[in-house]
Request: fold
Amino acid sequence: MRYELLVGLRYTRAKRRNHFISFISLISMAGIALGVAALIVVLSVMNGFQQELRQRILAVVSHVQLSGPGNRLDDWRAVAKGALEHPRVREAAPYINAQGMLTHGQGVRGAIVRGVLPAEEERVADIGRHMRSGSLAELKPGGFGIVLGGELARALGALPGDKVALIAPQGQVTPAGVIPRLKQFTVVGTFDIGMFEYDSSLALMHLADAQTLYRLGGAVSGVRLKLDDLFAARTVSAQLMASLGAGVFASDWTRSHANFFRAVEIEKRVMFIILTLIVAVAAFNIVSTLVMLVTDKQADIAILRTLGAAPASILQIFVVQGALIGVIGALIGVAGGVLLALNVGTVVPAIESLLGFKFLAKDVYYISDLPSDVQLRDVVTIGLVSLAMSFVATLYPSWRASRVNPAEALRYE
Reply:
């Protein structure tokens, strides 16, 4: 072992005459640990929110959507077959996307109407897992059944088995003039995804019924695709547009809901910067600790210099001391942060029960529980940043120690 490391570790373990220095060292170590733990927990919760939001959106929105000019695709089977030839495409399902107005009793609500084939739709989206009553399988061709979002059904006052009237925006020409087309549907189920945007506006019906209502014949609005990797959606959509021809347009979930994920990503970066300042403050407490330690150890430094120690060796001794504070603080913070992040689902309800207060009320927030997703990349980045700050904080006081003049230091000893 090099003597610089040996002396540095011995200084760290030795009982100091000035206990205030030891106290400041412990405060610095605790500050680094607290900052690192807070960073890991906050970023893990942000990752969890992002993952939860993605899952809820993809329960309704497919990875990639192919459509034609004017929101109409006539030969959709050929398009679906061509898309399935791509190695990353796993499933394809046709859909019709339109607008309408639903009425029931005194309730009137605008709705986004989606015509689907229930069996195929289950393969490209996860609405079936969020059914609160009934199932998509109850949508039969010619049966004119409809599945409503939970908030939409509540606003209309409609229950499963009730009749609702759907008014299509396309008018019907009669001798008396243009009148709206109206069709009665039976509510066969409701779903609750947990996102108000969809729960309050989306209505599903069988593809054949939608084709009849909106007079599309055998055409559809487009084809929805499921990929083996949702993060490859942007690349795959560009490749499909190039391979399927100019009459097919492709869009992916990252573009249609970019604002959600961009907001979460910006918040994550801002929180990283803000919480890093906690680590920075704690790390630069090491400066004051080492400055006081250098003043306390001037006689020892002078003796080492008279024995032949080079200024670089003295610098390394105090770098070892300061770096050790940073390493211990970072390790404690990483261990505590990861442990807390993995148990957020248990810790937060316990705090809520103790305080009698709900942090994320269901009637206010999309997501009422704190999800957590600990990612190794974040943990490693936080650990390295804290170690780098700790190392930088040791340089100035260590340099001052290396500049101590032995004669001046020993004059009054």
The mean pLDDT is 81. The first strand starts at residue 64 and ends at 67. Residues 3-55+260-410 form one domain.
